[in-house]
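User: Sequence in, structure out. Go.
Assistant: Echoing your sequence, followed by the structure tokens.
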Amino acid sequence: MRAMILAAGRGERMRPLTDLTPKPLLCAAGRSLIEYHLDALVRAGITDIVINHAHLGAQIEAALGDGARYGARISYSPEPEGALETGGGIHHALPLLGDGPFLVVNADIWTDFDYATLPADFTGEAYLVLIDNPEHHSAGDFCLQSGCVHDSDGLRLTFSGIGLYRASLFAACTPGKFPLAPLLRAAMARNAVQGMHYQGRWWDIGTPQRLAELDEWLCA
């Protein structure tokens, strides 16, 4: 299985930290956020990794290189300034992601999730990892019922930013900038999205305060 780390966001809420540094290279406990993902993916046996980038993307390539020192093989998917959003970014990178299901991870999260626990195969077009709703997103995103993810009434959980996808999810898409969520909701309406509820540690590093809190926790 190949993986993609989404690293193209501008990080507006993280300014001024991201004015001169791309958000994935911001550090907690002396390591960049994206390096935590690289280590976790390689531990799970996932070594072919695609990283997209836009804002200050040359810094990401310079910092990570070809991935050899992490035990990985990194390919890059550059995007135009302003990026292509999540859906457009994945669609743009499809030629690098192979023929089978692939894993996509948001660069701006930190988690102790073990990627080796993801299913080797799944029915449908997507498999999402959902988590308990954090304080800053108490309404949640989707419902999980008997292993199927729906956008319906009921107890809602938050999408973690970790998911498995098939290229078929993007079959009707054309190149350009577009979000992922509408594609997922359409697939949910077809009962084509599965998922799991993860209850381990997870941070959304969306603000300088949350980055500082993660740094304090990791250094404790």
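User: And one key feature?
Assistant: The domain at 2-214 is CATH 3.90.550.10 (Spore Coat Polysaccharide Biosynthesis Protein SpsA; Chain A).
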